[in-house]
Amino acid sequence: MDDPLPGNFVLTALLTSGEIYLLVFSLIGIGLLFLGSALVSGSEVAYFSLSHDQLLDTEQAQTKARKKIGQLLRHPKQLLATILILNNFINISIVMLSTYVTAALLGDVLSGGAIIVALTVVITFLMVFLGEIVPKVYANQNNMAFAKRTATLLSLSFKVFHPLAWLLIKVSNVIERRIERKGYRVSVDDLNQALDLAAEDETTEEEKGILKGIVNFGTLSVKQIMKSRMDITAIDLETDFHELMNQINKTGYSRIPVFKETIDKIEGILYIKDLLPHVSEEDNFKWQDLLRPGFFVPETKKIDTLFKDFQEKRIHIAIVVDEYGGTSGLITMEDVIEEIVGEINDEFDEDSDVAYSKLDSNTFIFEGKTSLMDFCKLAGVDHKTFDKVKGESESLGGLLLEINSMLPNAGEKIVFEKFLFTTVAVNDKRIKKIRVHITR
Question: Which N-terminal residues, if any, form the signal peptide (predicted)?
Fold first, then answer.
């Protein structure tokens, strides 16, 4: 006697014509669902990768498809929620139909763990490859064409799933607000790295510099960009009017600090425009009566806050004081703006405020008083490169003193990472000139 047929073959043989038709329709349905999954997944990339010009075209378009695209993109959060909801419904339907077809064909064998695992692996692979990877790659390269093909489907789904999408958006907004209250922040380094990655080839170095200047703007302190007290042009309160005019003609500045006895005792700021009506006065003219109050700021003040103070008080110059109240330096509105847009030179400025000369592409001669911020800009390195070794110093000469722990002799070499510093000129008090070689 022949062996009885296995249970699954008996079940298959006993399928009625109606059941066979149902299986065929189920298989066709699975194929259509995979197609739908591909279209919906690809539309996510297509819609949200449209360029600015393409978006403008959709706003001004006359065709129905482009109008629908424009209408959908006016509500980006709801559009994204609709796409995700529709895609999940399709994927769940694929899994359910695939399970039904497998059960109808294999019968009792489906209870075996191996069949279930195999079904899971196959369906997952097909959903990821055919329903995600392939359509998204294609949609990224043909975003407008893909968006047109799915405009009608998404417009209909937009209306059908509107209540559920609205609920999801509300829940996500609550979560987003809770995260914001916890103080989530993106670091400046992360933003700088994002700028390097996101900047397109057409972006110029100047544009990249401005973007990075904006990102770093809130991290810089007044001390990092101020003009040191040794470089301040100031006038003694006891100077007579004739000598005052001579000094003003030599400097070319529009605002000059005025001190009494020493630079640590700033009495006010002389605005040159206030002197214009009095240029013909005698030497005994009391120009001191024209002084305006000085604006004093600590070294640690951030320049973004200082910029707001300048705007609110309508002033352009501030005296920087140290922890003991002594004059540490001077900072102007121009200095602050230059941290974003770069150097601003007028007819009174030299080619560069930074005293340096370039020997070759990797070797420079700098004044020891050059600020580390200016040095880093000219050398093309990050301004945080020396943070761990600079201590309280903000000048190139001060950096070498921190690294060397003592005043170096002329010709002495100091190595730090890819920098070779050679002291060119030194006096008893400070480093005057430094040769810098950068190993690229």
Answer: none
